[in-house]
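Figure S7 source data.
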Amino acid sequence: MSGTATSGGDDSRWALEAHGLGKKYRRGWALREETFRIPAGRVCGLVGPNGAGKSTLLGIAARLVEPTRGQLRVFGRPVGDPSVRPRCAYLGQDKPLFKRFTVAETLRMGQELNPGWDQAAAERIVREGQLAPNAKIGTLSGGQRTRVAFALAFGKRPDLLLLDEPMSDLDPLARDEIGSLLMSEVAERGTTVLMSSHMLSELEHMCDFLLVVSDGRVRMAGDTDELVPMHTLVTGVTADGGLPEALGTHTVIDVRTAGRQFTALVRHEIPLDDTWQLAEPSLEEVLLGYLRHPEAPALLSPTAVPAHREEHAA
Ligand SMILES: Nc1ncnc2c1ncn2[C@@H]1O[C@H](COP(=O)(O)OP(=O)(O)OP(=O)(O)O)[C@@H](O)[C@H]1O
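Tokens for the predicted adenosine-5'-triphosphate complex:
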């Protein structure tokens, strides 16, 4: 849990707490009045298909998008509270930087705008990418610009880091390096990270909490350590081309068949019949099951469900 939360009291245990949070655009709901929470000090993977509502949620947390309904609390405070902004850093997909600024001028701007600025941390990130301080942002490659944007975000020393597909244009070495940096920030400072990504293997490696969204709805949320063991991969022989009847007493999320053999991802409420071959799935297998079947019943672990809150002060 975070050792950096400063607002005191129980609420600062939760980095984000959404109550009936919704965003409606002209064409419809991007986020459909959802209720969930993310504990402080965790690395939370935000997963979902294109158009699921991930950027919308990150945008609301970064105060770039105004919610239509409900409220979002950050470390126990309403997202619009002036105390919230200095504690958050946001890295969007488009990474807006001033093209005419040099790398050094960009970091200087970060220093001037952020009272808790850590110049050494920001410079280290830039140096490790062999970026010349006098290089103009406009002359950098997409991945190099991403590195500068990361330097700005880390230099701010935020308690909450909001990352929208942060590593999509980094080469494998840079991905690995920035990923390690992220993990050491979390370990050393208790920083909370909410990170959208389509790279399931990367999420498996980095995240200890998950928020899966599809069509604006939360489909799964909670500790990976809680969520994954609630599922079993069941392999057996099909009965008349279908699933054995006995499997029907469980929640079957996804089924794959090859010849007469089936492999089903099952959410088990009671122990499974051990005449089948049973195995614990990987996080990636669980995520793929829920992504393939957004109609599967939602699963929120108790950690991800906020206590009822009467007041809705915005
Ligand atoms: N500014 C906007 N105006 C109108 N509709 C929008 C706007 N931003 C997002 N939407 C719509 O809201 C829905 C959710 O979009 P969002 O960008 O949050 O999805 P996403 O999960 O981040 O997708 P991706 O993985 O492709 O980045 C989509 O249907 C999108 O078209």
